[in-house]
Write a structure and sequence with these properties.
flat; about 200 residues
Length: about 200
């Protein structure tokens, strides 16, 4: 499927989310006018204050940070050319070897932070789930992917300057920009449902 088709489907999903939000606003008003227990209207003074007063805190959730980190990592790996085949040149093969060494070192550091007794990223009871490690799994994976991608890109010559690295780091966010709008609509509908009911 081409990118135009994906964008069109995402646009339709966004339209459905907007319609669902509008229906929820009207439904909350009708149900609160009927004095249904436990229902608050989004059109009341309380609802309007809640919407405008909490919008930023609703959008600025850990899910947004995860989305940004995943887009940065995916864009970086795509721009680096790490998974493009074939890697026949000497420079590409050398870049793969050095990248593998960096990957092993990174995994080793993560294991030292999690696998040894009394490791820093374990919970106070010594378990992995829940723990600081389980709460940071997306950043740990994203940083690992970024490290490997940038290393490969620099050594293979695909990244010549710091500007190339910055372009690779921002590439995923540019390509995934519609996902930010989708995220805002999803989180707003979810939080509106929690407010109303």
């Amino acid at each position: 499927m081409n990118s135009q088709g994906k964008t069109s489907r995402l646009g339709m999903l966004m339209l459905l989310l907007l319609i669902a939000e509008a229906v929820l606003i009207l439904l909350s008003w009708i149900l609160s006018a009927m004095r249904v227990d436990g229902v608050r209207s989004l059109l009341s003074g309380e609802g309007v204050r809640w919407f405008f007063g909490n919008f930023t805190s609703m959008v600025a959730s850990p899910w947004l940070a995860c989305l940004v980190l995943m887009l940065v990592a995916l864009g970086c790996i795509q721009k680096s050319g790490l998974f493009r085949r074939p890697h026949t040149s000497y420079r590409d093969r050398m870049a793969l070897r050095i990248t593998f060494v960096f990957l092993v070192l990174y995994v080793g550091v993560v294991l030292l932070l999690t696998a040894v007794p009394h490791a820093v990223l374990l919970s106070s009871t010594g378990s992995l789930f829940p723990s600081p490690f389980s709460r940071s799994i997306i950043p740990i994976l994203s940083f690992g992917i970024i490290l490997v991608s940038v290393t490969f890109g620099l050594i293979s010559g695909r990244f010549q300057t710091l500007s190339d690295v910055l372009d690779a780091l921002s590439f995923g966010c540019r390509k995934g920009a519609p996902l930010f709008i989708f995220y805002i609509l999803v989180i707003q509908l979810f939080e509106s449902l929690r407010f109303v009911f």
